[in-house]
């Protein structure tokens, strides 16, 4: 009877989680295409038909491009891309619920596993930072890879629990996740982390992760043969060297924690300034990062659920906040998979609230996050709305003002466009795009 009651409870939690995603993302269907979407989706003939996609193979992130073809086949309008993004996000939220319940039950969490996992799934599903991966079409690779990544972990857990056939499913899902986005490379390390938290010796943890590591090595070898990946690596090294990028990423991680994660201050184009030499703020952030790493490893024995939560967060920031430089130092969507760690920790805290207050506390958290997400999705309804929100969040970033100027120009407001371009040039006189846009607009009428 207890098992049946638990199954009913998990089904109810899953239904409520999916309903919460549907409610929070109902406002996203007004979104349009933005920024990178124009060349990733709108002007990219390779994703407009299955025949064109097949002819483009082998291609970087081929599975993500296939998902664009699937959306385009339904409709070329933005809503079809939002629909698939939201469906994938809902699937990820369900996977967080299923995995969270398994992990928290086996890692000594001081709370009932199902309520804690349900709370974690809601936090993951409703946090407004997730909108950049879900609503923004060019964020598709993040949510698609995450869905396959979490499915691979669930299949691994089921294989570990006595269904050996699921091991092949796990390996296949991992390979597909890598074909959606390369940042899925962390999965073998996540397996090692989970096994270490279960008190497995490190040697045994590494042995269990070995098949997934073999898939990763094969994928890396294939990437090494690709001229596209070799070119991207050269561009990365030219942008910032590995040590320079690690230094810069302390600021990046500090931004992600203090802005989108904890204070819900989302931003489509963050303005993260890296001091030329470490200042007091940098050293404070570096010390906090080091302390988190140390606390994570120390907790693997004393409170393994907490160790997993802390180290999961940092592990899943490593692909985008590590030694390999990206053009943009930081984006909100980098939190997508990493957010599971803080969500699990907060889920345990909420599940420990007295039963009489637990539902109220969870409702407050869900409503705050859900409303923030619904409002954030409205910013994607037009270029003008998105870039107006962005310059409010990054008032000193020249690129944001230039893009706002273009949005004004496209809406027919030449005066506001000129003002925005002028502001972009005042912030960065070397912004050649703003200069060209202002020159093309011509002098204002007398």
Task: Produce the secondary structure layout.
Blueprint lengths: L1 H23 L12 H6 L7 H7 L5 H13 L3 H29 L6 H14 L4 H4 L5 H21 L5 H15 L6 H11 L4 H23 L2 H13 L2 H22 L16 H23 L1 H12 L19 H4 L1 H12 L3 H25 L3 H11 L4 H13 L3 H14 L4 H10 L5
Helix pairs in contact: 1-5, 1-6, 1-18, 4-5, 4-8, 4-9, 5-6, 5-8, 6-17, 6-18, 8-9, 9-11, 10-11, 10-15, 13-14, 14-15, 15-17, 19-20, 20-21, 20-22, 21-22
Could you list some keywords that capture this structure?
globular, 2 domains, Serine Threonine Protein Phosphatase 5, Tetratricopeptide repeat
What is shown here, in short?
By secondary structure, this protein is mainly α. It has helices at residues 2-24, 37-42, 50-56, 62-74, 78-106, 113-126, 131-134, 140-160, 166-180, 187-197, 202-224, 227-239, 242-263, 280-302, 304-315, 335-338, 340-351, 355-379, 383-393, 398-410, 414-427, 432-441.
What does this entry look like structurally?
The protein is mostly helical and about 450 residues long. It folds into two domains: about 290 residues, no CATH class; about 55 residues, Tetratricopeptide repeat domain (Serine Threonine Protein Phosphatase 5, Tetratricopeptide repeat, Alpha Horseshoe). Helices cover about 75% and strands about 0% of the residues. It has 22 helices and no strands. Helix 4 crosses helix 8 and helix 6 packs parallel to helix 18. It starts with a helix and ends in a 5-residue tail after the last helix.
């Amino acid at each position: 009877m207890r098992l049946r009651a638990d199954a009913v409870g998990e089904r109810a939690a899953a239904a409520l989680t999916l309903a919460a995603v549907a409610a929070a993302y109902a406002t996203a269907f007004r979104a349009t295409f933005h920024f990178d979407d124009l060349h990733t989706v709108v002007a990219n003939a390779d994703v407009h038909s299955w025949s064109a996609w097949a002819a483009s193979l082998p291609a970087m992130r081929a599975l993500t491009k296939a998902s664009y073809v699937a959306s385009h086949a339904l409709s070329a309008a933005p809503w079809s891309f939002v629909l698939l993004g939201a469906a994938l996000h809902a699937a990820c939220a369900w996977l967080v619920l299923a995995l969270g319940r398994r992990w928290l039950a086996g890692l000594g969490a001081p709370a009932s596993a199902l309520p804690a996992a349900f709370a974690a799934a809601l936090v993951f599903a409703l946090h407004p930072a997730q909108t950049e991966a879900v609503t923004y079409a060019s964020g598709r690779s993040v949510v698609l890879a995450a869905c396959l990544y979490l499915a691979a972990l669930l299949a691994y857990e089921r294989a570990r629990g006595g269904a050996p056939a699921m091991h092949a499913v796990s390996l296949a899902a991992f390979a597909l996740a890598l074909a959606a986005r390369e940042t899925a490379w962390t999965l073998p390390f996540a397996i090692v982390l989970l096994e270490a938290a279960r008190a497995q010796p490190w040697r045994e943890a590494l042995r269990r992760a070995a098949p997934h590591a073999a898939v990763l090595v094969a994928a890396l070898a294939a990437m090494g043969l690709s001229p596209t990946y070799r070119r991207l690596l050269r561009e990365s090294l030219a942008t910032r060297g590995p040590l320079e990028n690690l230094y810069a990423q302390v600021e990046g991680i500090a931004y992600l924690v203090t802005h989108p994660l904890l204070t819900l201050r989302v931003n489509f184009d963050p303005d993260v300034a890296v001091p030329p030499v470490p200042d007091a703020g940098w050293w404070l952030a570096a010390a906090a990062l080091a302390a988190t790493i140390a606390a994570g490893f120390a907790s693997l024995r004393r409170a393994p659920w907490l160790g997993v939560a802390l180290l999961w967060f940092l592990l899943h920031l490593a692909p985008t906040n590590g030694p390999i430089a990206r053009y943009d130092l930081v984006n909100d969507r980098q939190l997508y998979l990493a957010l599971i760690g803080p969500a699990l920790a907060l889920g345990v805290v909420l599940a420990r609230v007295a039963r009489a207050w637990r539902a109220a506390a969870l409702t407050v958290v869900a409503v705050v996050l859900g409303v923030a997400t619904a409002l954030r999705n409205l910013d994607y309804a037009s270029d003008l709305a998105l870039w107006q929100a962005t310059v409010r969040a990054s008032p000193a970033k020249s690129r944001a003002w230039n893009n706002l100027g273009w949005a004004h120009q496209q809406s027919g407001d030449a005066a506001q466009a000129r003002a925005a371009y002028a502001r972009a040039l005042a912030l960065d006189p070397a912004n050649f795009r703003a200069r060209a846009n202002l020159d093309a607009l011509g002098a204002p009428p007398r």
